[in-house]
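Quarterly update from the structural biology core.
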Amino acid sequence: MLKYWRVWLLILFLSASALAIGFKYYPYGRHVVEISFVSDTSPAKEVLEQGMLISAVNGAAVDSFDDWSKATRDLSNSSVSLTVNGKDHRFFVNDTLGIDVMDIERTNLEFGLDLRGGTRIILKPDSSNVTKEDITQTIATLQTRANLYGLKEMRFFATSSVDGSNYIQIEAAGVSRDIVENLLSKQGSFEAKVLKPVDVANEKGSMQIGDRFYPVSVVGNSSIEIGNQTVAENRTFSLEGIEFQYMNQTNSRLAFLAKVYTGSDIELVYSDPQHSGVRPSGNGYSFYFAVLVSEKGAQKFADVTAGIPSRIDLQTGERYLDSKIYLYLDGKLVSDLNIGSELGGKIYQTPQIQGFRTTLDGATEEKLRLQTIIRSGAIPTSLKIASVDIISPRLGSDFFISVLYAGALAGLTVFAIVFIRYRRLRTALPMAGISFSEVVIILGIASTNDAIIWASVMVIGFVLIAASWWKKHEIDIFAWVAVVLVPLLGLMSWTIDLAAIGGIIAAIGTSVDHQVIIADEAFMKTDERRVYTVKDKIKRAFFIIFSSASTVIAAMFPLMLVGVGLIRGFAITTIVGVLVGILVTRPAYARIIEAGIKKD
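Predicted structure, tokenized:
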């Protein structure tokens, strides 16, 4: 049995790939649809989120997008019951339910927008002097916005063309074009507000703004008087050109929120090592970075923080004001920070933002997130939309079925031609089987959540080759490379889209060419070749195959590194397909042909 170890190695990779593709866990069953978007006007806005799974509408099971469309067609002015993540929820629908869904993936393959449906946008910076750091920061800013708007399935990629131009590619499965465009077209509204506490006794107190004091009186249960103004709870008023919001009264203290910075006040967010960093502190890590604010913003901050008492943080031992600064993006609270006691009442145009996390990674990520939030609305470069593609799920599924039909027809055609050429089923059938195996292995490598499977394959592969070597069967270096490299490739994953399908077709075309070379060399019976054994002929074939494969990989490698989105997917799939071919499937086919000729 070990004499055919190359064939067993192929069977091992083929079995692992089938498991990697199809072995999927369904926490709420297979008959569900996935929420792709919840609108602001939906009655389920604060209850349901993107990514949740809906299994029933009004008790009726929903197994597909079509089932969902039928079940939610006429729901206006009615109550609807949804079973989401195994729990029942009931909502009253005034006009529309405001929930978009899409079919769940039945395999571990991650299909692209071409097949799944959604929006793909290519953004091009207006400036030609944009650096990679600018692109990275822009992507971080857009990603923060997407997360704040609940668009967790929106993905951003930095890409470049062959001429060196930088682009940003955005993919949003199941999200309509207008949502993406509105997200991108928004300038971004950033605000920073400081909590201003005012102590009161006998319903009276005093608010200090800069070097001036304003008397405050409590009126009734939820109103105050300040600066000749009567202000109700949660209402805003202005003093010294600063906008305040009266929040509430707790015991003997009034709480106000003062707007000290807006996006126009943030002139620069430092990210260089001199003004930004992470350092060990106590039982964790503290991070810091400086921002450059306008003179007007610095003055407002000084006026608001004047007179606020300080306190000691027991966790870090640092002294802070008995207050916090709250960061808002597009009206949503995204973070709150302590204020160093040395900043109270002082005019600083380069205040330092500080924070603490228990781990180094957590501190680094939080620093980047806060820098992104503060910088949001001030993207390093203006962007313009280079292209927008809208793909409906229906178009994608129809196309995928068409590709399967076309592939089957092409396979039958190749099989017929090979059979006519060699008049041997023993030659034609393995060629068709090897080509099919390569498709499965490529898809298995591209699958997600398969680390355990490929780790097991590496171990079993080593055992198989070691046993064959122990039995003194011929082992080549490429077999050892195969059991290491292919499982390592299996740990990566990429999207199966039109480009990937094109790469699979290119890899299969190369596979058929190489198998024809092997068969021709093996069956050649001219006088000048008669002195060669079958093994020698196959070795001559593999010299040609390796030369051809090297040329293909060399041509695809630059596209993988610098290609824009689609080109990169094509290059990755083609390279993986060629590597699988020369390391696994071609040697197995050669062993099958060799065994067949010896039997004849």
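The chain has five domains: 2-24+392-599, 33-103, 118-147+156-187+382-390, 194-261, 263-375.
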